[in-house]
Design goal:
Layout lengths: L17 H23 L1 H12 L3 H28 L2 H19 L5 H29 L5 H10 L1 H18 L2 H10 L4 H11 L4 H12 L11 H4 L5 H23 L2 H8 L4 H29 L1 H21 L13 H13 L5 H8 L5 H16 L2 H11 L4 H5 L3 H13 L21
Helix pairs in contact: 1-5, 1-6, 1-7, 1-9, 2-3, 2-7, 2-8, 3-4, 3-5, 3-18, 3-19, 4-5, 4-9, 5-17, 5-18, 6-14, 7-8, 7-14, 12-18, 12-19, 12-21, 14-15, 14-16, 15-16, 15-21, 17-18
Length: 443
């Protein structure tokens, strides 16, 4: 008697209408933008929160760390739900949790209440990216998957610009007590996206077919496991999962080690007016968006590796800028402000994230894909959560020089580049394949 095997389907022949594909990419873009907005608005509120609740800068930074740690738990939980209950269901649940947590955070009364509520928010944030990104990659044309993924990740520019605009507006237009609270209340908008997803976004047809085969007993026993967290480290996936985890941890440590403190560095250390910091953030967001799209095209044309390698080199230039221009204060011209160009190099480096969802989705088989993609991404965020704690400590060791403290990200940049060269190339691989990709295929 022959062993039953799975019937694979191609994303190009899976029967999505144009409207369904539009709903998928719109939901994924908006979901990721709202996710990142909720994280990025905190740096603009840190000063107000510190004064309002009468806590230290380190305590405020620890709130961001706890949010990111919560996202690791959420990544594992909602990733598992995505593999067991479906991508769409997991996405709706995770949006509901993080919207509720963000609204509740606005009513915090001290450091610990804010920390606990932001931790709950982080749990919700943890599942959004993985559920949406996996669904997208299972539905999209594999020849244009890199560019489509870049559009989703490129919505980070919307998040960054919105966070800077709302953060500065709320803290300057309202009282010290209410400004940051009103800003956090805006994090409840994912509730509206939940309704849209419920009404218009389809479930992944690849997952639906896999689930039917699983229920019918047509799936090999190894693919039926309910412990998908263990399965992502089983057999040939073990080594590649370790590389993926180190890769994403290095990225996130560098990202959060800079993005959380850049507004503070420019305002407090380099005498940059708040409205100039806002303008710089908006300009950088536009540059970042163009970089995401450029790297997405590069992903599809030359391979996934190049879409991470080129931005990683831009981060190297950013680290040099932090070291060289740590004391060059704002002199009245954005173009003549060295830290502006350092920030531009930073946002170009951020576009490496545009390849992550597609690359991870192509590496992992369908039965563990949502779990693996969420866990890798959110474990990276978990390590990144230590950066807001480590940077102030390093800065204190350098006599209070924040730019020097931010230089602790330099080793992470080197590690990120090394792991980029170690991961297997997956361009044009069908995202519904169930067979794991052997790690020895890496070059």
């Amino acid at each position: 008697m022959t062993r039953p095997t799975m019937t694979m389907i191609s994303p190009d022949a899976s029967g999505y209408t144009r409207g369904e594909r539009a709903a998928i990419i719109f939901s994924c873009m908006l979901g990721f933008a709202l996710d990142l907005y909720d994280v990025l608005i905190m740096p603009f509120l840190m000063g107000s929160i510190q004064k309002s609740l009468q806590i230290s800068l380190a305590q405020v930074a620890s709130v961001t760390s706890l949010t990111l740690i919560g996202s690791v738990i959420g990544g594992a939980l909602f990733g598992w739900l995505g593999d067991r209950m479906g991508r769409k269901q997991a996405l709706q649940l995770t949006l509901g949790v993080f919207a509720a947590g963000s609204i509740a955070s606005a009513f915090a009364w001290d450091h610990w209440s804010l920390a606990v509520l932001r931790f709950i928010t982080g749990i919700g944030l943890g599942g959004e990216w993985g559920a949406g990104m996996v669904l997208f990659n299972e539905a999209w044309n594999k020849e244009r998957r890199g560019l489509g993924s870049a559009f989703i990740q490129g919505s980070a520019v919307i998040a960054s610009a919105s966070a800077s605009i709302v953060g500065v507006w709320a803290t300057t237009s309202f009282s010290l007590e209410w400004g940051w609270r009103i800003a956090l209340l805006t994090g409840g908008t994912p509730i509206l996206l939940m309704i849209f997803i419920r009404l218009f976004m389809p479930e992944s047809k690849a997952w639906l077919q896999f689930d039917r085969q699983r229920v019918s007993g047509l799936v090999p026993a190894a693919a039926k496991t309910t412990n998908t967290l263990v399965a992502m480290f089983r057999g040939r996936l073990f080594a590649v999962s370790i590389v993926c985890l180190v890769w994403m941890m290095a990225y996130m440590f560098c990202y959060y080690g800079v993005v959380v403190f850049m507004p503070t560095l420019m305002q407090r250390s380099l005498d940059t007016p708040p409205e100039i910091v806002r303008n710089i953030s908006i300009i950088a967001s536009v540059v970042g968006g163009l970089s995401y799209l450029s790297m997405g095209a590069l992903n599809d044309a030359l391979g996934r590796r190049y879409g991470a390698l080129v931005p990683g080199l831009a981060w190297g230039a950013m680290a040099c800028g932090l070291y060289l221009f740590a004391h060059d204060k704002y002199q009245g011209s954005i173009v003549g402000f060295p830290m502006f160009w350092t920030y531009i190099a930073f946002v170009i480096g951020n576009s490496a994230l545009g390849v992550v969802g597609t690359w991870l989705s192509e590496i992992y088989p369908i039965e563990v894909r949502a779990t693996a993609v969420s866990v890798v991404y959110m474990a990276g965020r978990g390590i990144g959560s230590f950066a807001p704690v480590v940077v102030p400590i390093a800065a204190a060791a350098f006599g209070g020089e924040l730019a020097m403290g931010m230089m602790v990200v330099a080793p992470a940049i080197v590690l990120f580049l090394a792991m980029t060269l170690s991961l297997p190339e997956t361009r044009r691989r069908t995202a519904t394949d169930a067979k794991p990709l052997p790690h020895q295929h890496a070059v």
